[in-house]
Specification:
Blueprint: E1 14-18, E2 25-26, E3 29-30, H1 34-48, E4 52-56, H2 73-83, E5 87-90, E6 110-113, H3 120-123, H4 127-134, E7 139-142, E8 164-166, H5 168-182, E9 188-192, H6 197-207, E10 213-216, H7 218-227, H8 242-254, E11 258-260, E12 264-268, E13 276-279, E14 288-292, H9 294-305, E15 309-313, H10 326-340, E16 345-349, H11 351-358, E17 368-370, H12 374-381, H13 386-389
Parallel strand pairs: 1-4, 1-7, 4-6, 5-6, 7-8, 9-10, 9-15, 10-11, 15-16, 16-17
Antiparallel strand pairs: 2-3, 12-13, 12-14
Amino acid sequence: MNNIKDFKNLNQKKILLRLDLNVPLKQGLIADETRIDKIIPTIKFLLKENSKILIISHVGRPKGKVNKDLSLNPICKNLEKKINKKIKLIYEDIFKLKKEDLFKDPKDQIIFLENIRFYKEEEENDLSFSKHLAGLADLFVNDAFSCSHRAHASVSKITEFIPSYAGLQLETEVNALKKVTTEIKKPITCIIGGSKISTKIGIIKNLIPKFDNIIIVGGMANNILYFNGINIGKSVKEERCEKIVKDIFDTSKKHSCIITYPEDVMVGKSFDDKSKIKDLNQIASDDFILDIGPKTINKIKDIIENSKTVLWNGPAGYFENPNFANGSYEIAKKIIKKNKFKSIYSVIGGGDTIAAINQINAIKDFNFVSTAGGAFLEYLEGKELPGIKALK
């Protein structure tokens, strides 16, 4: 995998830079800027080399249709302030763009294309779309590790038509995760949460042979509770997951991996409600499970206390409402406490996990922070990611 920093002469080269700037937006405001901050070293490096930078990224899941609420405009403005450089955002149809039309003004150094997922061809990994994108620049740089588990046009297929390189951040992430997988110290605990159930619950089964403990929290834990005959009220749940959940428990017994899930929960009648502690037999049919309860928190703390390595991906609850953020905060505080005595190696991954930890200003208190969610887990699982494979 060649890194762009090893390229001999980038002067005036047009660089098609794939970034993951999929930050949480609320009424057009950025709720967490970590992903933007992480790519600044790559931008500064390319500017120093006097390159012309054409940025591709996405926000949200517009499903191949233009959605003005998911424009990259607020991200452009935020990055402009951070690097003190003018950035042009091109709204026009990508299919109508030509290489010679870009950077006509000598002052233009950074141009953004509008949300790449406004085009259905992106997620279809479309050949002609990839070829067209490749035709807009001289070199392609993938600095979006967190998108590299996706076989999408601007991540994998594009490399067939243009000289392609890894970015600075992508290489940092891969090297850090290599360290985790090769120098890992047992006992190992993996905490998996969040609400993207279908993308993670199958991965858990494949991680079981590698870990001593897997703690399942957040929306995914509801599947476990439901499988065990617990009334989960109106809580988020993936359909037809019974076989996967059964497989998880069967596999864990074979490999002596302990699966931990909530013993008590915090509920509300809506996502904006105040929180109320409930044991599992007290959940009402109109309750939403939105965080883990105190008994569960204490159990997780005990597991962390006896671990040498902790990998954490996905918050424990609906942290956007402070009433349901306590589970995530308490997990973070326990890991941080162990980190201070250098008695644990901690890696956290995923945009939501980082957003939760940023709320208590603790991002620097972990050994490694990955902005990737699904890619982070799939790499740990030992899968070859399409975006990484395409660079080889």
